[in-house]
Every structure is written in C-alpha cells, then in structure tokens.
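User: Please run a holo structure prediction.
Assistant: Happy to. Please share the sequence and the ligand.
User: Here you go; the ligand is farnesyl diphosphate.
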Amino acid sequence: MDHVTKVAQPIAHATAVGLDSSRLPRHVAIIMDGNGRWAKSRTWDRTRGHQQGAEVVRSITTESVKLGIARLTLYAFSSENWSRPPAEIDFLMELLDRFLKNELPTLQENDVRLEAIGSLQRLPLNVRKTLDRIINTTAQNKSMVLCLALSYGGRDELTDACRAIAREVQAGRIAPEEITPQTIQSHLYAPHAHDVDVVIRTAGEQRMSNFLPWEATYAEFISVAPLWPDFGIAAYHAALQEFQRRERRFGGV
Ligand code: FPP
C-alpha cells in the first residue's frame, strides 16, 4: 500500500461519516463497560457479555484504522479485575488468548501493531506467550497501534515508574533535582505514546477507574449510554463528533 492510499482513505472515510478529518483524536482510549449488565438483562451468564464484547473490540479496532486514528488503547482487564470470581477471570484470559490468535490476520491486513500495558507478569503464561508472539509479528505495522491495557492499574504504573527512577537516583545516574515530568513519562509502560486525547466510557458510567492517570491528564471524557456489547460504529462516530465539539484549552484561555 503506498503512502497516498494510506493517508487519503481515512480522510475520505472520516468526512463521509461526519467527522472533521483534520481534528481527529490521535489517541483514543476506551473503558469498555457493561458486559455483565448486557448478559444479565438477557438472563445469560456474564461470560456471554464478554464474548459479545470481544466482537465489538474487533469492529471498533477496524473502524479506528479506517478513520486514521493513530493509537487506540482499550481497558481490557484492570488490576482490580483480579478480585473477580476465578471462573470469570479464567474465561476472560481464555477469551483474550483466543481473540489474539484469531485476530492476527485482521491485524496484519489492517497494518495494526499490537502493544500491551500493565502488570503483564501477572497474566497466565499462555496469554503472555501469545501476546509476545502477536506483538513481535505485528511490530513493523504502521497504520495504527492497538494497545491493550491488561492487568493495568494507573497507580501501579506510576509506582513502577517511581521505583525505576529511585533506582537510577540510588545508582547516581540522575539527581533528584533533575527529575522532570519527561523523566516520569519516559518510565511509563508505553513511554513514546502520544497523550490521550479522548477517553470514552460506555454503560453511562462517569468514572476513570485507575485508567491512564498520567496519559489522560488533558483528555476529554465522554460517557456514552450503550453497554459495551451494544456499542456500534454509529455510537463511536457520535462520541468522536462530541469530542470535536469540545473546545480544548489545555489550561490556557
Ligand atoms: C467491563 O464489563 C468489561 C471488562 C472487565 C472486560 C472487558 C473485556 C472485553 C470487552 C472482552 C475481551 C477483550 C478483548 C480485548 C478480547 P463488566 O463485566 O464490568 O460489566 P458490568 O459492569 O455490567 O458488570
């Protein structure tokens, strides 16, 4: 695919769906909420909500590429989610493993690079191996980064960064006075990622839930009503249109 094709297609697509292609967010982060409620309303097991949720991950990822978004971070499993019943955790881990294996051709076709952030060492070995394989296989892809927040907690991320910086101070490589916001940024799980422009949370919830506290400091927060398994392309476009209506001042006037 040549450069012109890659750039021209997203602009046309964004315009066609009512978005200003020159003001699209570079980094979209999504808190995928409501899988359990979606299943419960149908008297189904919660796991069916997660299963349907994985389908939505596929469609929103593909749509993000079509729009020309550079980075999509999805909150797939939080550090707090480890307190869920073991059977639900096992199901989510198996679902993730299967999803990653099945998605590889789609990631390659769409030129998407996979990344993961979080306390990944806590994940089961099979999931870690699959993640490593897909991350390595997609490492050269350029159109978009799909970043999965797995076993992720924002406070854990900042604590890990503090520990790493403290070790550097202890070793005499850096003086405490030399620590700047850039020092902290460079010790995050994804140090080179652009700041989050917009956080979208489904199921009408309005909390950040320990998600990207450093990276989303200046993000617009958009809460949308649909439960994650019902979150379709049209609702995604509507959320991005809402983002484009916001005036971002970054503390200025
Ligand atoms: C929140 O819904 C969702 C999760 C904790 C897990 C998110 C997982 C998926 C969308 C599917 C798998 C992901 C990938 C990347 C394949 P909830 O269970 O908290 O819903 P509730 O608040 O209605 O109970």
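The two ends are 42 Å apart (CA to CA).
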